[in-house]
Write a structure and sequence with these properties.
Elements lengths: L3 H18 L7 H10 L6 H12 L13 H15 L5 E4 L2 E4 H25 L4 E5 L2 E5 L12 H17 L6
Helix pairs in contact: 1-2, 1-5, 1-6, 2-5, 4-5
Length: 175
């Protein structure tokens, strides 16, 4: 399994590179941050597992049982699609008009971050089964990396991304 920092950084980097080089319509870096945080969301079952185990008094295995399924990605993409097809409408929240297009983007980056998390676990965790819905397995994931290879992966990705950000956006001008 990839480390928590790796899940966040890889999601941020992939979404940011998409925003910089592929997206026809640029979007805010806030959405990049949201996608990075979403890259960690499937692991919310870990603290839930700790709390449940403490409450019950014995070890309860919840990790990768429900939240690590592709059904969440499909759910968030379906919500994004519903808002996207009505993208010219607006929703008023806390005296602010928010376009359906931005809400669709919000759910899209959550789905992408979630999918990146599953892809990382799939390629790194040796005993991981890819699931469509909890209990319905799609087979075993291909995992070419050893756990030793993960020790510096997040640091390498972060350094390469910072070099890219300096080269592409001159982030040192903001320091």
């Amino acid at each position: 399994m990839a480390y928590s920092v790796t899940h966040v950084i890889v999601a941020i980097v992939i979404i940011d590179l998409y925003r910089d080089y592929i997206a026809k319509k640029k979007f805010s870096t806030w959405f990049v941050l949201i996608g990075g945080i979403a890259g960690l969301l499937p692991d919310l079952d870990v603290p839930l597992q700790w709390i449940t185990s403490a409450f019950v008094g014995e070890a309860v295995a919840l990790h990768r049982v429900v939240t690590h399924s592709l059904s969440f990605v499909a759910l968030f993409m379906a919500i994004a699609f519903i808002f996207h097809i009505q993208k010219h409408k607006k929703l008023r929240i806390l005296n602010r008009d928010i376009s359906y297009e931005k809400i669709a983007l919000f759910f899209t980056v959550i789905a992408v971050g979630w999918l990146i998390h599953i892809a990382l676990d799939c390629s790194i965790a040796g005993d991981y089964n890819l699931t469509w819905f909890p209990g319905i397995s799609l087979g075993f994931c291909y995992h070419p990396f050893s756990s030793d290879a993960l020790l510096g992966l997040d640091a390498i990705i972060l350094i390469l991304w910072l070099i890219h950000e300096e080269w592409a956006h001159k982030i040192s001008d903001f320091i």
